[in-house]
């Protein structure tokens, strides 16, 4: 199917301070975003796509100066695709604290004239949603036809329905969870410790030293990447294959899976900011909307009004199907309309990014329902 074609990022500056969950605030910040399709006259066909850990506003299409840099969800969003840009006005926003254009630790703190570095405030999923709501206000969008995302993006979609229940008609939550398990928090901490213990990190102010904590970033990415893949997927792709066909009796890279992880780590360390990695993984850890209700997710979701699509993948052990089922049970307990799909796919957590025909048919069918609702004016 065709792509949305050439796209250009846009930016919007916000002078008014945004008060954060931590009690800190940030002002004079910029959000970078992209849009695809056209907003209808009633402004009822807007879809917000929330990104996961190492993604950005670049959801679909490609840049004129780099045609190979296609959007991270280009297989999902575009003309005739599951999220059809001939029908919907799709917005991809780069979150605060990122290293892809929106204000983050690499940027200059107007109060000091130096990069924020370690002084950039810790953010939460709820903070990102509040910032996205401000962007929606500026674009004149009072209510989204849908807010969608996978993984960390799914957390944001869920948070939207709690924080702004009157501004979301549908939430599409894929391979996500209402809170991290202890195991997930542990993996995130190991990754952060790799960065924090890198001598080139310099307490987060490595910019002033003209260095990058590459070793820490490499290891952090390697740890994270293991959790994104299933054992079946790794076994099929790499097995126990040796690069040279024989043991070298040393500690260098010998197995193909080692080579792959080192490659992913090296690539990641060349483009991702270490402080951003710390911020985003901590936001993942902190997300737990049921905490203020004594751990009762039913109570946390009691004020929601949206309809929901949730999808999970059988081999995703990072955000397992049980995580999605827990959300489904609480939504059903609150009388919400919920569609749930559990897809038998071998690719682990990364399956939400891939082009699985069954998965895409589920999303396409749901968006067909949203489209009929918009045109019929009746909520089904």
Automatic annotation (TrEMBL):
Substrate binds at residues 221, 350. One of its GO terms (molecular function) is homoserine O-succinyltransferase activity. InterPro entries: AB_hydrolase_1, AB_hydrolase_fold, HAT_MetX-like. Keywords: Acyltransferase, Amino-acid biosynthesis, Cytoplasm, Methionine biosynthesis, Transferase. Gene3D superfamilies: 1.10.1740.110, alpha/beta hydrolase. It catalyses: L-homoserine + succinyl-CoA = O-succinyl-L-homoserine + CoA. Pathway: Amino-acid biosynthesis; L-methionine biosynthesis via de novo pathway; O-succinyl-L-homoserine from L-homoserine: step 1/1. One of its GO terms (biological process) is homoserine metabolic process. It comes from the Bacteria. Its main location: cytoplasm. The keyword Transcription regulation does not apply. The record marks 318 as: Important for acyl-CoA specificity. Residues 45-321 form the AB hydrolase-1 domain. GO terms for cellular component: cytoplasm. Pfam families: Abhydrolase_1. Transfers a succinyl group from succinyl-CoA to L-homoserine, forming succinyl-L-homoserine. Homodimer. This is Homoserine O-succinyltransferase. It comes from Oxalobacter formigenes OXCC13. The gene is metX.
């Amino acid at each position: 199917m065709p792509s949305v074609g050439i796209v250009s990022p846009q930016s919007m500056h916000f002078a008014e301070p945004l008060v954060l969950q931590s009690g800190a605030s940030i002002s004079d910040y910029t959000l970078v975003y992209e849009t695809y399709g056209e907003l209808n006259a009633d402004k009822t066909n807007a879809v917000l796509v929330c990104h996961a850990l190492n993604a950005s506003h670049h959801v679909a299409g490609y840049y004129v100066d780099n045609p190979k840099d296609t959007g991270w969800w280009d297989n999902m969003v575009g003309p005739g695709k599951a999220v059809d840009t001939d029908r919907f006005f799709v917005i991809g926003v780069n979150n605060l604290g990122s290293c892809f254009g929106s204000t983050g630790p690499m940027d200059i703190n107007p109060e000091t004239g130096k990069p924020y570095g370690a002084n950039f405030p810790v953010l939460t999923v709820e903070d990102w949603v509040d910032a996205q709501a401000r962007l929606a206000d500026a674009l004149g969008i009072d209510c989204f036809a849908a807010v969608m995302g996978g993984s960390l993006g799914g957390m944001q979609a869920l948070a939207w329905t709690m924080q702004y229940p009157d501004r979301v008609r549908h939430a599409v939550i894929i391979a996500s969870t209402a809170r991290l398990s202890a195991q997930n928090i542990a993996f995130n901490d190991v990754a952060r410790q790799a960065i924090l213990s890198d001598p080139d990190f310099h307490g987060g102010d490595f910019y002033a030293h003209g260095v990058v904590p590459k070793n820490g970033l490499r290891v952090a990415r390697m740890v994270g990447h293991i959790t994104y893949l299933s054992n079946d997927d790794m076994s099929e792709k790499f097995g126990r294959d040796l690069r040279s066909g024989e043991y070298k009796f040393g500690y260098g890279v010998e197995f193909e899976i080692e080579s792959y992880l080192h490659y992913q780590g090296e690539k990641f360390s060349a483009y991702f900011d270490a402080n951003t990695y710390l911020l985003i993984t901590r936001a993942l850890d902190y997300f737990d909307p049921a905490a203020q209700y004594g751990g009762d997710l039913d109570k946390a979701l009691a004020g929601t009004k949206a309809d929901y699509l949730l999808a999970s993948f059988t081999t995703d052990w990072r955000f397992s199907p049980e995580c999605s089922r827990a959300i489904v049970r609480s939504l059903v307990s609150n009388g919400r309309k919920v569609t749930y799909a559990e897809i038998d796919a071998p690719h682990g957590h990364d399956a939400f990014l891939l082009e699985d025909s069954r998965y895409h048919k589920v999303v396409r069918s749901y968006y067909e329902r949203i489209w009929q609702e918009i045109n019929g004016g009746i909520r089904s």
